[in-house]
Amino acid sequence: MLRGGRDAYWRRRAKTVVERRAKAGTLYDKKTVDAVRKGLKQWEESLYGKAPETRDFQTASGIPLKPLYTPDDVRDADYSDQGYPGVYPFLRGVHSTMYRGRPWTMRMFSGFGTPEDTNQRLKLLLEHGETGLSVAFDMPTLYGYDADHQRAHGEVGRCGVNVSSLKDMEVIFDGIPLNKVSTSMTINAPATVLTCMYAGVARKQGAPLAKLRGTVQADMLKEYIAQKEWAYPPEAHLRLIKDLMVFCTKEMPLWNYISISGYHIREAGSSAVQELAFTLADGFGYVELGLEAGLKVEQFAPRLSFFFNSTMDFFEEIAKFRAARRIWATVLREKYGVKDKRSLLMRFHTQTSGASLTWQQPINNVVRTAIEALAAVLGGTQSLHTNSYDEAWALPTEQAVEVALRTQQIIAEETGLPNVIDPLGGSYYVEWLTEQMEEEAYKYFDRIESAGGLLKAIKTGYLQREIAENSYRLSRRIEEGKDSVVGVNKYAKQEKEPIDTLKIDFKSQRAQLRRLASVKRERNGEKVKEALAKMRKAFENEDANSIYPMMDAVVQYATLGEIMDVGRETWGLFKEPQIL
Amino acid sequence: MAKKSAAIQKKIRILVAKPGLDGHDRGVLVLARAFRDAGMEVIYSGLLPSPEQVAQMAIDEDVDVVALSLLNGAHMTAFPRVKKLIDRMGGKDIVVVGGGIIPEEDKPKLLKLGITGLYGPGSSFEEIVEHVRGRVRKERWKE
Q1: Residues of chain B contacting A142 with CB distance shorter than 8 Å
Q2: In this predicted complex, what is the ipTM?
Q3: Which of A193, A298, A359, B90 could pair with B121 in a Cys bridge, judged by C-beta atoms 3.0 to 4.6 Å apart?
């Protein structure tokens, strides 16, 4: 998948999803199905047939829909393909007890202004009953530039917290015991550096690295495909991820070092089918990378987690989550020969869709987010971030974040939804749609493989163009009124800014510049130089593991920018393919 | 007069750019296609150009319009900088429009600098295209 090849597996698999439906199943006998067909025909002719169809009924991905689903649509389903929670192929959930045992982790993404501001926000969320931390970084940090870099001007602390050196991380996690919390850091290109910094803070707190629980995103494949926050060409970033996989396997065994993300692929304008297909393809790519690093799948697969989007086509989203679990387990077992159960589980985090939030009539976004959150929970997510209603305007205010967290708490504690596992399992429509999504995903895997594998598909811009085309299709549909967005192309009204939004001033930029200057003054310049030189050697040597010398550089207070510059000098920059 | 009207009717050349550290290109890519569908000649800056590079591109490509988009909150630094650089390079006649997530209180400052449009999420293509056409028409009348 990663480097391409002539693997007929995907094509064969795409066919067997169909064939599975064509073989005799165990759920319905022929007599029952025949009776249903007869009844359905009567219903269609005598009742439904009188209702004229004025719209094209389809899912958001464009899968055409019938008015009604019956046992006929899943007539050949075999129950062994559905199974039980915690049992292969995990369609019904990864844990045997699911939310009866423990509700999903309510993990709210936050980070803004100065490290001090973020430290306060994290502590506040912990007090409010949040169970996992999640940190957002600003653009200079995401691209690996220090606060004092020319490119960083005006962007420091704007859409996340700025981290220029270990010092900033020490402030962000001040008073938060890293051996007790789990922390998710949304960071990609500089993920190795931030992991080293987190470990550096933990060391100072006296927390053993082997105990650290958390996640870095480090999913560079989706950066080239969708979010486009890269520093180096793909091969260089993949090499660093490979080093991180090996390092963590030895030193930080509880650290989830790649969060394979469909979220950004979807936000960039893909369909649910594309999100499913491209994300899982990336997942298989990382499996192949781990194998290239000399690891066994069983050593690293339990540390891979996924991150999906949940947006407004309720049932398609639920089908997507269920399909994802079944594809992952099936392919890992069939194609990569994995036997260990823990390695077959697809655990995932979900975030409601930022792109679905409207700038117009922002309070409506509370409702959208609740519906999306519900789909994620019905899809069996392990953790969830709910967006705040004001995020089409700015970073969220504390009040808006509280409503978003309360939305999850209401679903978890008032609806009774966690009482029954996978409550939509067995719905004719949901099971049928789940299979449809699977089939479409396998077809895409085959297309990517035929296009020369992921790396090639990224470099030629194939995947990027697929997304851009779908995104334009969606925008056109809204523009033409084929799809409705309440408050935007329907029920719109003239309005002024009706809500209070969070304001970020330039104070945080100035504060960061001051701290960075003092870090550079106070550190041992000779030791920094020495550490960076050692790291450069490791960068230049394919066989070395670069994380150890990177850790040494970090604890000497070499800055993020200095470390990333060594990479930029070694590997150069990435030139994006023409997409338009 | 006929000559002037021909000049006004000429195909619009537009540079679409995101001048900053912001890879979220869904909006610009969609807009670029919409401008193209509306009959304009579209040049896309690619990702992560500096304000200097955007201004240089505008001059080199001899465009009528520069359409800027940012979603990362840096518009108050990047937009005025691009405009200033274009003016300085002799492109005072180039129309500069902007869009993205731009708070109400920032708008007067940008408008005063001659950066107009300032469309937010959910704006229709039609509205944006008409705005661009209107500004170009006005600019061409001046000449």
Answers
A1: 21
A2: 0.89
A3: A359
